[in-house]
Specification:
Blueprint (H helix, E strand, L loop, with lengths): L5 H9 L4 E5 L3 H9 L4 E4 L3 H4 L11 H13 L5 E5 L9 H13 L5 E5 L5 H9 L4 E6 L5 H4 L9 H17 L3 E5 L3 H10 L4 E4 L7 E4 L1 H4 L17 H18 L13 H7 L1
Parallel strand pairs: 1-2, 1-8, 2-3, 3-4, 4-5, 5-6, 6-7, 7-8
Bound molecules: 3-methyl-2-oxobutanoic acid.
């Protein structure tokens, strides 16, 4: 089975076909996402919040990301795997950014990287592309800018920031990214950006006009107990099912009803007799 390529993703916009993307952070869930035929898997730095229990994504390191990217890649055959460049892995110098992007490909086994930012990241994006590494851009409510934004706030609601987002998207398209994640921007602005650029837009909290959608997997499966943003649809609610199973397990262990005979292994009687 061949993997989804950047050409496939670009082709979907031309054919007016929607692109599906989900995050995954481990082997088991990545294998299910892959089997479901999702086009792209983002090993998102949201890992910091949903898997590592941090308050935001800022503490996630390159080592965390490479470790989880390897696990996701091992679980997949079809989806394109995109490694999310963590905070400070592409901010200090362009050289360091290219080296870190290269680690996602060489050590992690990903097919592309994603990084946050518009105009201020164009030189970095170009250098990574020069190293033959496909780039997904990410603009709007970029979580690594949480301190600068003063919280997780929808972006592009006033004329100045809306115009900046349109400009950023065009600059990123010119630089050569093969898709742009639009996070937390008004639906009509996301529509305008989607119409203005030839590369696919992938929305999260950006409405239905985007060329594709991405969600954090723990949110859409209903297995994250933290804050769930308004734009998330829970496609199922696993948390109560998991809690019920955990409580049943505890009760059965305490009552001695688990494990049953059928869960055990046997030993020949002659060996057993010699043990006594
Ligand atoms: O880290 C992440 O999960 C992301 C998505 C929200 C796009 O960047």
């Amino acid at each position: 089975m061949t993997r989804v390529s950047t050409a496939n993703i670009r082709g979907k916009k031309l054919k007016n076909e929607k692109i599906s993307m989900l995050t995954a952070y481990d082997y088991s869930l990545a294998a299910m996402v892959d089997e479901a035929g999702i086009d792209m898997i983002l090993v998102g730095d949201s890992l910091g919040m949903v898997s590592l229990g941090y308050e935001n994504t800022l503490s996630v390191t390159m080592e965390d990301m490479i470790h989880h990217t390897k696990a996701v890649v091992r679980g997949t055959k079809h989806a394109m795997v995109v490694g999310d460049m963590p905070f400070m892995s592409y901010h200090v110098s362009i050289k360091e950014a290219v080296r870190n992007a290269g680690r996602f490909i060489q050590e992690g086994g990903a097919q592309a990287v994603k990084l946050e930012g518009g105009q201020e990241r164009i030189a970095t994006v170009k250098a990574i592309l020069d190293a033959q590494i496909p780039v997904v851009a990410h603009i709007g409510l970029t979580p690594q800018s949480v301190n600068q934004f003063g919280g997780f706030k929808v972006q592009g609601k006033d004329l100045e920031t809306a115009q900046k987002l349109i400009r950023d998207a065009k600059l990123l398209e010119e630089a050569g990214v093969f898709s742009i994640v639009l996070e937390g921007v008004p639906t009509q602005l996301a529509k305008r950006i989607t119409e203005e650029v030839s590369v696919p837009t992938i929305g999260i909290g950006a409405g239905h006009y985007c060329d594709g959608q991405v969600l954090v997997i723990n949110d859409m499966l209903g297995m994250f107990k933290g804050h769930i943003p308004k734009f998330v649809k829970k496609f199922t609610n696993l948390e109560p099912l998991i809690m019920a199973a955990l409580k049943d397990y505890k009760s059965e262990v305490e009552a001695g009803t688990f494990p049953g005979e059928e869960h055990g292994f046997t030993i020949n009687d002659d060996v057993l007799e010699k043990l006594y």
